[in-house]
């Protein structure tokens, strides 16, 4: 028919998508658990919970990795997107005590090659395998006119399980409990809109210029390039926390919103979490952002994790044992009777170690 149009001309290549789909069974097989009953292809994934649990409760969470994808795309490191979304998601269900069961990813973009899509899915699969989580399936959508050519987004959905009587919900937190911080690997997956502007990287310049800027080695980073510091992946904490989880009264994953937004999510009424910001060394990447962006300490702690990715609340009698058992853990504060606000950050006006 004269003048007929094809889907590929509108930006969606069905043949290329079919070729990509044929690679998925082998990728998903890297992150397989015995409870998985379906292979790639059906309209839904199947997962048998089985009878190993007495009173199982499912924990679920959904998230993305935000504008960090701009840096990963410019640097040609789409393989790092998977560890970021998995680390973030595993931590979000860890705080209630859940272990991960399965994960589904959602990739939407415009003009990604099959090689780029494969790098994304392989990164997710490898990260799932690292934490013992099945990659049960997902969706890859070509969306011209929604995303600019070459751009994409990655989101994920995780489901885990916890015995009902083992749920960690903060109700055991009491005045006198000790706050223990676990070090982050960097920004993790939050605050990149501010970081990109403060450091003037992936801030509208061509990709070639972004790559050049990422090669800078500021003295604050101790030999790392700017790219290495910014692209460090989101650290999952399940492996370190699981051996001491029976001694934990509450946990807070320090993501977007920093300490004042995330810590209160697990606090019962009538208590205040007092955090001494001088208790740990703030990584150089945060000091660099603050300096170049002229960002106040108050704002930095509202946006970033500042070097602590997970906060544990434990009884004073268990604090030393937990500190000894969890690598890198540091005492960063305590729970007190209500002082008028849920979180107090001590030491901001005096500067932080580093």
Can you walk me through this structure?
By secondary structure, this protein is α+β, with helices and mostly antiparallel strands. The chain is 30% helix and 22% strand. It is built from 13 helices and ten strands. Helix 5 links the parallel strand 2 (99-109) and strand 3 (134-142). The longest helix has 18 residues, at 114-131. The radius of gyration is 22 Å and the shape is globular. The mean pLDDT is 92. Pfam families: AIRS, AIRS_C. Keywords: ATP-binding, Cytoplasm, Ligase, Nucleotide-binding, Purine biosynthesis. One of its GO terms (molecular function) is phosphoribosylformylglycinamidine cyclo-ligase activity.
- Helical stretch count? 13
**Would you report the number of β strands?**
10
* Average pLDDT number: 92
- Shape, principal axes of CA atoms: globular
Please mark out the parts with pLDDT under 50 across 5 or more consecutive residues, or reply none.
none
Helical residues, percent: 25-40%
CATH topology type of the largest domain: Phosphoribosyl-aminoimidazole Synthetase, Chain A, domain 2
The CATH architecture term of the largest domain is: Alpha-Beta Complex
> What is the element string, with H for helices and E for strands?
HHEHHEHEEEHHHHEHEHHEHEE
Strand order of the largest sheet: 6-8-5-9-7-10
What is the CA-CA span between the terminal residues? 70 Å
- Rounded to the nearest angstrom, the radius of gyration is 22 Å
Tally of distinct domains: 2
Q: What is the class of the largest domain in the CATH system?
A: Alpha Beta
- Largest sheet, strands/sense/barrel: 6 strands, mixed
Structural class: alpha+beta
Kindly report the name of the CATH homologous superfamily of the largest domain: PurM-like C-terminal domain
Question: Beta-strand percentage?
Answer: 15-25%
């Amino acid at each position: 028919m004269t003048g007929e149009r094809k889907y590929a001309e509108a930006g969606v290549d069905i043949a290329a998508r079919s070729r990509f789909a044929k690679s998925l069974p082998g990728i998903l097989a890297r992150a397989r658990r015995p409870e998985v009953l379906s292979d790639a292809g059906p309209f839904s994934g199947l997962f048998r919970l089985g009878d190993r649990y007495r009173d199982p409760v499912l924990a679920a969470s959904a998230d993305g990795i935000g504008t960090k994808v701009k840096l990963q795309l410019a640097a040609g490191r789409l393989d790092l997107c998977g560890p970021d979304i998995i680390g973030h998601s595993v931590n979000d269900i860890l705080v209630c005590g859940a272990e991960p069961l399965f994960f589904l990813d959602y990739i939407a973009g415009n003009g990604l090659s099959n090689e780029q899509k494969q790098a994304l899915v392989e990164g997710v699969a490898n990260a799932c395998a690292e934490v013992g989580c099945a990659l049960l399936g997902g969706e890859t959508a070509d969306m011209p006119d929604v995303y600019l050519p070459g751009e994409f987004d990655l989101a994920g959905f995780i489901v885990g399980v916890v015995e009902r009587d083992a749920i960690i919900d903060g109700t055991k937190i009491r005045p006198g409990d000790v706050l223990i911080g676990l070090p982050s690997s960097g920004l993790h997956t939050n605050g990149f809109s501010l970081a990109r502007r403060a450091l003037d990287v992936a801030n509208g310049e061509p990709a070639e210029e972004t790559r050049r800027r990422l090669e800078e080695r500021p003295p604050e980073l101790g030999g790392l390039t700017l790219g290495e510091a910014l692209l460090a992946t989101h650290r999952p904490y399940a492996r370190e926390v699981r051996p001491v989880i029976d001694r934990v009264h509450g946990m807070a994953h320090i993501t977007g919103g920093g300490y004042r937004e995330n810590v209160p999510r697990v606090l019962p009424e009538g208590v205040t979490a007092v955090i001494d910001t001088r208790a740990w060394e703030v990584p150089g990447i945060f000091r660099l952002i603050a300096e170049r962006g002229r960002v106040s300490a108050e704002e930095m702690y509202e946006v970033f994790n500042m070097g602590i990715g997970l906060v544990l609340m434990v009884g004073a009698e268990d604090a030393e044992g937990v500190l000894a058992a969890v690598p890198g853990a540091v005492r960063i504060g305590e729970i007190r009777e209500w002082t008028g606000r849920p979180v107090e950050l001590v030491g901001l006006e005096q500067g932080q170690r580093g």
